[in-house]
Amino acid sequence: MATRRSIMVGKIMLSALINGCAGTALTLAIGSQVLGMTLPQAALCVLASNVGGFLALLVIMWGSWVRGTFPTWALFLGTYFGTLFLLAEPYRSVRAFVWLALPLMLSAGFCIIAYGPVQDWFVARSQRRQRSA
Question: What span, in angstroms and rounded, lies between the C-alpha atoms of 61 and 84?
């Protein structure tokens, strides 16, 4: 029988999957129809968004030295958008930023799905180290 936690995790993963699909579809549509991007350019923006989201999550997880809500969000958003601007050249214009900011944030739902097992691995490794010490 499923526990409440496993049901909640399943709902979060489903939500991340739906957001990732919706954000990707919106990014490809807006990028190609409104901004005149080719599909590979729009797909590069989606890929960069997911890489940026994954890196931002890792930085926040390792950033135990960050204290407070504002510094945490500033570090997260700085890492996310910094990676996005660095990797996705088509996203660097103001017009593309305005049109694609929200769809790309939605498309980063895929990185949440990938991040879960990585976080579990780090937590398990930390617990093994504490037991052996």
Answer: 19
Predicted TM-score (pTM) of the model is: 0.85
What are the pLDDT digits (tens) for 42-98?
Answer: 999 999 999 999 999 999 888 777 788 888 899 999 999 999 999 999 999 999 999
Count of residues making up the chain: 133
Q: Residue 9, Cβ neighbours under 10 Å: how many?
A: 13
Tokens (6 digits) for 55: 């890196």
Contact at 8 Å (CB) between 50 and 107?
Answer: yes
Backbone angles phi, psi at 31, to 5 degrees: -60, -45
Q: Which of 24, 15, 6 is nearest to 105 (CA)?
A: 24
What residue type is assigned to position 11 of the chain? Answer: K
* CB 18, CB 72: distance < 8 Å: no
